[in-house]
Amino acid sequence: MADASNSTSIFTLQGAGASSVLGSNPTQEDRYTVLLPDEFSGHTDSLAFFAVYDGHASDKVAEHASKNIRRLLTISRELRQGNYESAIEQAIQAEEKELLQGFWAGEELFAVAGSTAALVVVNLTRGILVVANLGDSHVLLGEADGANHTSLKVERLTTSHKPEDAGESHRIESAGGTLNTDSGVSRVGGLNVSRALGDLQYKMPLKDIGEQSLSSGQEKACVEPTKKGDLVSSYPSLKRYTLQPDRRYFLALTTDGVTNTMDDETIMHQIAGSKQEGMDADRVAAKITEKASKEPSSDNATCVTVFLDGHNVRDQENLRKVKILLDALDEMGREVDYFALDVSYQELHRTLSIVPPGTFRHVRCFGLLGTYDDGRDWMHLPEIRSRSKTILSLGSTLGSFQRPEAADFLASFVTPESNSSLLIGLDGCKDADRVLAAYNDPEGINRRFIKHGLERANEILGPDTFDLDKWAVIGRWDAAQGSHNQYYLPSEDVSLADKTIPAGRRILAVKSHKYDADDRDALCRRAELAVGDAWASKNQYNILYLEKP
């Protein structure tokens, strides 16, 4: 039997990181944003936001936009209602208004400087991806498929906005502009992009200030003051993409310092390969920008990398250890019945969907809906009792028990009349630094998993029982107990029922015991079980085959 974990999100954010390099340029005009779900307060769904900005003529606009657009999105009513396209458009137009106000207040660079942008909103709960861009910064998507997720489909989700494009040149000319080709490349004044933040000299109302006051850029654009409209547009291209729960995805947001040096396929295959090698998202992004910066006359290069796993992929990972065993038994021709146990029908169905009928020739897979107690009772049914059984617990379940309770739990399954044995997994690592790094990951994946317990409590007790914005999750290593403990921590005094919990009071959520050799021996002695065989990995994960002596 095996247990499966619960989650309400279709997707898990496995990592997000970023890197920017100067290249051959003397100044850095790129900026980026990585906004994780913990930073979106009060949202029902789990959201994340990522962006890159490529400034030109100065870093002023890119810097302003990178700080302001993230703020505008976190307070956006449209975003809360799931209208992500509207939320992005409104944030961009609000940013444009603030840039214009800044210009009138004396920041003249907002008229002659600007920035491209590539933006992504991800709804992890529903598997929705919304992409927007201005100019030639891009969003690339790698979709991994196949049994081992080795087949990668690469797609560019954004549109390159260039003056020479038919639709863009028509819009520019209709607004009173003329393409400048003096450099051999079509430009709007001095710009080689036709949509951007800032560049207010090419937009209303500054564009319409009269023929006697044209800037040098406006003169290059041959502005006709009698025609209305923006030569450089601030309206982004938008795309909504539905993510598939049985897929693994890799996202890359890049400035043109990356995409001008490598093709999309090369970028995404390098990202997927680096992730497969175990690199974190920051290092993967750095590997991309480092490669781009080695090109002659390289530009500023920025890359944001995002790793997303659908829940079916997570289920496959959860079942991976068991499936290795089932594959081996099937290859040996052993007639085996495998029963997965879970209290959630949805999770049970998802687990078994990984091994549908026809997966094996000799192994048959079934589901048991119920608790551990139900599973024990099922084992004592007359038609089951006489059969030889091996109970599997290869996940983290045993570590969550107090040590004496873990031994009693194991002993309850292997009784003289049960005709049973056990195959269990135990984490033996007690290196405090390694344990803390594993549980307190920079992307906050584990913290969100623990905080999900409060979300589940709200589903049961009422939506306002726990204000999630007032609760944090912290982890501590307990050397005396050999356990990693995770706590709920209120940021201010909170009332629950008729009691007040003071700010900073730690409430134990999960205790994860680690089992070194002495602990494993003590566990077996108390459970009155003998180790029939044992295996250990280099990272101190142990598998024990236990039976009655």
From TrEMBL:
Alphabetized CDD domains for the sequence: PP2Cc
Annotated PPM-type phosphatase domain residues: 15-308
Biased amino acid composition, Basic and acidic residues: 158-173
Gene Ontology MF terms in the entry: metal ion binding; methyltransferase activity; phosphoprotein phosphatase activity
Example GO BP: methylation
Pfam families associated with the record: Methyltransf_33, PP2C
Superkingdom as given in the UniProt entry: Eukaryota
Region (Disordered): 158-179
Keyword tags: Hydrolase, Metal-binding, Methyltransferase, Protein phosphatase, Transferase
Similarity-based family: Belongs to the PP2C family.
Name this protein carries in UniProt: PPM-type phosphatase domain-containing protein
